[in-house]
Amino acid sequence: MAEITEVPSPFCGIGTDDLTIQVDGISLKVVENGCAVNSPAFEQAITDTCPRVDGKDVSLDVAVARAAALLKNTNQPVIGGCATDVNGMRALLALADRSGAVVDNMNFTGARNNFLALQDSGWMNTTLAEVKNRCDLLLVIGIDLEGFSPRFFERYLWNKESMFMDDTGKREVIYLGKAPSGNASTSPGGQTASVFECVNEDLPDVVAVLRALVKGNPIRVDSVGGIAVADLQCIADKLKAASYSVVTWAAGALSYSQAELTVQTISEMVKDINDRNTRSSGLPLGGKEGDQTANQVCGWTTGYPARTRFSSGYPEYDPFLNDANFLLGNGEADALVWVQAFNAKAVPPVTALPTIVVGRSGMTFAKEPDVFIPVGTPGIDHVGHAYRMDNVVAIRLKKLRESGLPSTSDVLNAIDQAL
Amino acid sequence: MLIKLTGGAVYDPASGVDGAKQDIYIQDGRIVNKPAGDVQVDKEYDLKGKVVMSGAIDMHTHIGGGKGNIARTLLPEDHRADPVARTDITRSGCGHAMPSTFVTGYRYAEMGYTAGFEPAVLPINARQAHMEMADIPILDKGGYVLLGSDDYLLRMLTAKKDQKAINDYVAFTMQAAKAIGVKVVNPGGISAFKFNQRKLELDEQNSHYGVTPRDILRVLATAVKELGVTHPLHVHGCNLGVPGNMNTTLDTIQGIGGLPMHLTHIQFHSYGTEGDFKFSSGAAQIAEAVNRNKNITIDVGQILFGQTVTASGDNMRQHANHKHASPNKWVTMDIECDAGCGVVPFKYKDKNFVNALQWAIGLETFLLVDDPWRIFLTTDHPNGAPFTSYPHLIRLLMDRSFRNDVLSTIHPEAQKMTTLASIEREYSLQEIAIMTRAGAARLIGLQDRGGLSAGNWADITVYTDNVDRQLMFEKPDYVFKDGELVVVDGKVIHTKWGTTHVVKPDFDASLEKDLQKYFDRFMTMKLGNFKISDDEITEDGRGSLTVHPLKGDVA
């Protein structure tokens, strides 16, 4: 039995790296600084260790050969999931380049709300240490932040000390849209967050009015989405009065059509505040299970985020047409490779097409894939790198146990070689 | 395997060889002396009529790190115009302003470059810089770690910590980030922007710390010198792009008091305020100051006309410049109490007065600085122009009539405001070889690179002499990297992986106690998880580290 300290987590997106984990053979227990997201993700037991072809246990070599054979004569393979570490993504992109596949990160439809806004007008953003030391007003739009990241407040808002604030307990938290599910956002001194609820679909109007108020434009209604304009005026005034406000949202939680316009309005509002003689920054939430990692590695390898096809011999990005589900449903794809090294519950969409799963041990399938190769989890079974939500910090993942499971990159490189 | 390159005209400033016909022998990746008479040559290349130089080294190019990837993500339309298909030996990707990593390696190699150095490695983002550079084939690489707006250093200055403590911190950070140099960007200004300061003069205090850019430059330049790091402090000065900033630059040169200092992309810092448009060239005064102060080296950061994207650590100045964004979209970030960044697409236009004069200012600087060992050929890729424009830039420097032809097409008021037409100088091949090879290797402190004498690594580029210098430098006949032939007739025929160049200055280990406290109190990661291990560079089986000596080390 060993105890490993300062363990970084690839699961929560906020880069917690203070976990203490007890290792007993191949079983893990988070004994310090666990949370509802990280502890189960680390502690999940290994069940499969053996690759399967057509449901039967085979050697890794046989499984790799079978996967390569399935891919060999395809016209339009799709590689979905794309949930792995940096080296896993490198191998995945090499395989996609060779096989002319479409690469699509499973969380891209949510992330697309950010990419479309970024690629149209840009933004002014910040990172977690700036939040921890500077943020005097946190505006949370459309997300239950503690549900998303249970330790966000403890680590980055109610930290005991900060470099630029005498008392972090005086920070103000405002929720717009969703209400918090618990009391993590209540300051140590007992000050609760202000909450202005509306339904998701009203967020575009609510955010647009808030931006107009920041700019000092007249609003001729008394309420929007059930929120009094006077309350929004009060938020606008606080944003302008704060020294360093931070506005946070989660692209994936804005689950309505054309939500990129909401992200754009938020981001343009942050720019507006910076033109009013104070500072403000955006903070997009994300980074779970390799989504930022997928987009970063695909970004430097191809120039584009991780919804990109290689079928023309060179990368082509289309945030709508390269959607794996769309291609599978449309009959445009003829094979599916599903890569998900973090989450055994994130199984591939059911399809009649030949399916190869490179997945975390413990996946259960409604329909057994043609090939299943259980792989190790980055940060548990092998070292690696994963990006945090703020996209700047790549955390160095540790190897915690000797499970004998291959890494995603081992398996995908072997398939690439076999092709 | 013994390779012989026979009869080429060799330009090797490192050995003082200026165009003499010489044979070069390569064995086991290195250049060797002519072997004894009976040794069999396995492969011979007839280089009669060819020009032979060592592989070119770009000492300032943004090829790795977060801001570059933001620039890529921001500009899908730019990539679509320059798709790069895969071949049997090369990977697919994209080109133009901010190419994908693989394409960066291929295109540099295809121009005869064999090394590139990322000048703005944020300590907290250094992993990304190295991971991106690890995916750049063929080239050697390295990085200058960015300090000067990081809160730890600013706190040290406020607390009046002594120079020795600062040296320890600089050495620690160089090791933790795997760097070969130290860069400072808008000294203290990135931090000041986070406190809502929108400009910062050389003697203006950071509103929170009470520290001035001059203080920061002095302690960092001293640290670099005292640690024995060969590459002088690499400085992106105050007031980038601001008309009148030549005075800041002159003051910066004077203020450093003779310490070694490299002023980067000095074109962007050489502006006066004369003329109808209150924008004029300060190149003559800057060049004069550079000529006079032997402790100063510069690279130009030439702009060339067309679409590009600017990616800088200078969030303060990039925020101010966003009104020039074309297309109109831009990103700034405040980063981890460490630094920041700003990404603003630019389209430099020859019919725009300011852009046209910027172009002329860069060329004036090249032509008015006397010593080619102290000036380096850069466009600050991609900020002034993509690196793929280097052959065009070399022609502008080597061919006065071509230069004047282009000059006659730019904004007429800009033509009136530049002395370029009257400057007769044309760079020689040897001077180009100094700027892009021998001088760069010497400046960075690369051992066994940038020269063609025995003992050097066999990074060698062979060109066909051509009066059209652009055509000549666009398409080398052969490029060897570590003795392996990687390019023939301007096309990659073989790929390999280069090494990562670093230095490892010593520091007092007790520093880490204080740093650990600082990380635990204020940062978002543990100190132990912040430091990059050697494994992270080498574990994929492709990367390697090459540690270069410090000044004063016994060779």
Give structural notes.
The complex is a heterodimer of chains A (419) and B (555). Chain A is built from 13 helices and 22 strands. In chain A, helix 2 crosses helix 13 (408-418), helix 8 packs across helix 9 (229-241) and helix 8 (203-214) runs parallel beside helix 10. Chain A is α/β, with parallel strands linked by helices. In chain A, the strands form 5 sheets. Chain A has a 9-stranded mixed β-sheet. The mean pLDDT of chain A is 97. Chain B has 555 residues and is α/β, with parallel strands linked by helices. Helix content of chain B is 34%, strand content 22%. In chain B, the strands form 5 sheets. In chain B, strands 6, 9, 10, 11, 12, 13, 16, 20, 25 and 26 form a 10-stranded parallel β-sheet that branches. In chain B, strands 1, 2, 3, 4, 5, 21, 22, 23 and 24 form a 9-stranded mixed β-sheet that branches. In chain B, strands 17-19-18 form a 3-stranded antiparallel β-sheet, sandwiched between helices. In chain B, strand 23 (484-488) and strand 24 (491-492) form a beta hairpin. In chain B, helix 6 packs across helix 8 (213-227), helix 9 packs parallel to helix 10 and helix 10 packs parallel to helix 12. The longest helix of chain B has 16 residues, at 353-368. Chain B is globular, with a radius of gyration of 23 Å. The mean pLDDT of chain B is 97.
